[in-house]
Specification:
257 residues; alpha/beta; nine-stranded parallel β-sheet; 9 strands; 40% helix
Amino acid sequence: MAVTERLHQVRQRIIDAARRVKRNPDKITLVAVTKNATLEQIQELIQAGHRDFGESRVQHLQLRAQEISHWLGENQGGGLPAKSEIRWHMIGHLQRNKAAQALSIADLVHSVDSLRLAEQLNELAARREHPARILMEVNTTGEASKFGIPMPAAIHLAEQIETMAHLEFTGLMTMAELSSNSDEIRESFVLLRELFEEIRQKRIVGPHFEHLSMGMSNDFEIAVEQGATMVRVGTAIFGATETNSPQEPCGNSQDRV
């Protein structure tokens, strides 16, 4: 099956899930995670009108962004979008020593999970003209294998992030358990939505706080039903075989898309 057909299927499933709970599917962004994609598949999606792409590792993000930027530059005037129209999302764990590299590419960092990382991004963003757009990653399952701020500490970190002048704090992100139990998956998303609503009710955050990034290939429909505004889908679009990524060990659940 062509990658554009799989993209269409995923989009239709998002539409169906949104309609089941009377949500507007146009308010949900599909981030195509390119970890297992070939360059040709990414190009095909761009030609089909897709604009949001994500990577979980900084070196992969750099590689993909460079490849696509070069391709678009070489083919301007051929009906392709401008480079600025492609939006890159950093969705995986971000080490502070790689924050500058990620920030130079990513339109949105989904995975801010500590005060020190937030401070680093704020300091880096102060050197440019516009703030860094970020989401706070929350560990809603309590699993030691997952990154993310623990639930009991999340509100305090949100308060600290909101004081940083060069960050645009736009919402929350989480990953559910890798489980076949839909109730367990749903609980993770419910917890994030409730935390999101509590942060808004306490007026900790400003008007940019509007996104819930949750849901991947195995659970994005449940995430949509629970309020996701962004879903991060790789395998359901590109398949599960790694084809064009630098080889490195995969030691945590952020690699699951």
